[in-house]
Specification:
310 residues, mainly alpha, Rhopdopsin 7-helix transmembrane proteins, three-stranded mixed sheet, globular, disordered N terminus, sensory transduction
């Protein structure tokens, strides 16, 4: 299984849970169920937002972006992981591995930046509600969303283009997918310069948006405390509470993975953390962010009513 200096394409073995056959069977069932829930939940959110004109607001524009992103994010790795659970030797070529890694990185960075844009939207909505509709117009919303997708692409290109491609030792990735950190553990070249690049990119993609979100919610808290009515405060907290849960789930796991010292061994803890931000968070987003919302429930009832009338 050693990598040889030849012109043949390299292949890697994605170990996953193959050393635990019984656990792998259970994992396959749970993963398939979570993937189906993710696709159905986020598809329903997109359908409701597109269908109901009452949801054509800045907040739901960003939610629709998030739902589409989550569908792409899970699809970038979950189908391959499901297939690997069914084969004896879950092999993947170097080209496929790099493509999967780049897609996961790109979509993960987009989510980081998009959550920051959503925090800004909530900050304006609660801090300056009278001018909210004017300030958060279609042009600014499109600019914030477009910047998130474009900036994430540029940051991902830097990471991928500077990544060392010299691998040595056994071609076994002790992970479910070709995640960047798991793949780097097989690199035999000097990683000091690349690690500096990773720190810089992580600061821009993780720490800076997270700091912006914290600052935004600091301003939101000040604005909420100024609200006189209890009902108004409750509405403001309920509007922001779901977003805070999503931020805590996604940023907490991602920062613990990419902003902590790494060694040359992939631990089971790393796999669990990876599942949290790449599978569980996209599955939970529609449940805790959108479908529990009163406006979304109303849109769902109106959709069902129209379908019944037809």
């Amino acid at each position: 299984m050693d990598i040889q200096n030849s012109t043949e394409e390299l292949y890697f073995i994605l170990l996953g849970l193959s050393q635990y056959p019984r656990a792998q069977t259970v994992f396959f069932c749970l993963l398939l169920m979570s993937y189906i829930i993710t696709l159905l939940g986020n598809s329903l959110v997109l359908l409701l937002i597109c269908y109901d004109p009452r949801l054509h607001t800045p907040m739901y524009f960003f939610i629709s972006n998030l739902s589409f992103l989550d569908m792409c994010y899970t699809t970038s790795s979950v189908p391959q992981t499901l297939i690997n659970c069914l084969v004896t030797i879950p092999a993947i070529s170097l080209g496929q591995c790099l493509a999967q890694m780049a897609a996961e990185l790109y979509l993960g960075v987009v989510e980081c930046l998009l959550l920051a844009a959503m925090a800004y939207d909530r900050c304006v909505a609660i801090g300056d509600p009278l001018s909210y509709s004017v300030h958060m117009g279609p042009r600014l919303c499109g600019l914030l969303a477009g910047t998130s997708w474009t900036a994430a692409f540029l940051l991902t290109v830097v990471l991928v283009m500077t990544m060392p491609l010299e691998f040595c030792g056994r071609q076994v990735i002790n992970h479910f997918s070709c995640e960047l950190l798991a793949l780097l553990k097989l690199a035999c070249s000097d990683l000091h310069f690349y690690e500096l690049i990773m720190v810089g990119i992580s600061a821009l993609a993780l720490l800076a948006p997270f700091a912006f979100i914290v600052a935004s919610y600091g301003r939101i808290l000040v604005a909420v405390l100024r609200i006189q009515s209890t009902e108004g405060r409750g509405k403001a907290f309920s509007t922001c509470g779901s977003h805070l849960i999503v931020v805590a789930l996604f940023y907490g796991t991602a920062i613990s993975m990419y902003m902590t010292p790494q060694d040359k061994t992939t631990h089971d803890r790393d796999k669990i953390i990876s599942i949290s931000y790449s599978i569980l968070t996209p599955m939970m987003n529609p449940l805790i962010y959108s479908l529990q919302n009163k406006d979304m429930k109303g849109a769902f009832r109106r959709l069902l009513g129209r379908r019944t009338d037809l």
